[in-house]
Write a structure and sequence with these properties.
alpha+beta, TATA-Binding Protein, seven-stranded antiparallel beta sheet, two-stranded antiparallel sheet, 2 helices, 38% strand, globular
């Protein structure tokens, strides 16, 4: 009896894992059903990620808007990295640099703002930390 319960549990786990969202590195289309927007109209988040409001913070005062956003979901971390590279570029953000392997870290700039995205590949969930804030001065990217 225990063996069949373990097999059933493993089967259910595999089914839910296979059915989970895998984000391909495609350019998102504006208004597509598979993305949502953050409090910033030029940053898109795939539907497979869920915002954890209790761990996030958004600040707005006058023309300043900044924040830290924490998301989790069952999304492939390397595909998610490619998604953000394409999505952010399509929204006018320039990729300054990126790191990979232990975690994925993407640094973007747009005008006088920066966006840092840290993607942690976990056993059950992928965690995404996203920081958006002003720069001291505008950066020109070629």
């Amino acid at each position: 009896m225990k063996r069949s319960a373990v097999i059933l549990w493993c089967g259910l786990f595999l089914l839910t894992s296979l059915g989970c969202a895998t984000i391909k590195g495609e350019r998102p289309k504006k208004g597509a059903a598979r993305v949502t927007y953050t409090d910033f109209e030029d940053i898109q988040i795939p539907k497979g990620l869920k915002l954890k409001k209790g761990k996030s913070l958004f600040y707005e005062s006058g023309r300043y808007r900044m924040g830290y956003f924490y998301y989790t979901g069952r999304v492939d971390a390397s595909s998610l990295t490619e998604y953000f590279k394409n999505s952010m570029a399509a929204s006018g953000w320039a990729l300054l640099n990126n790191f990979k392997y232990r975690h994925y870290l993407l640094n973007f700039v747009k005008g006088d703002r920066s966006c840092i995205i840290l993607i942690e590949d976990g056993m059950l969930y992928t965690k995404v930390h996203l920081w958006v804030g002003p720069l001291e001065r505008q950066v020109e990217v070629k």
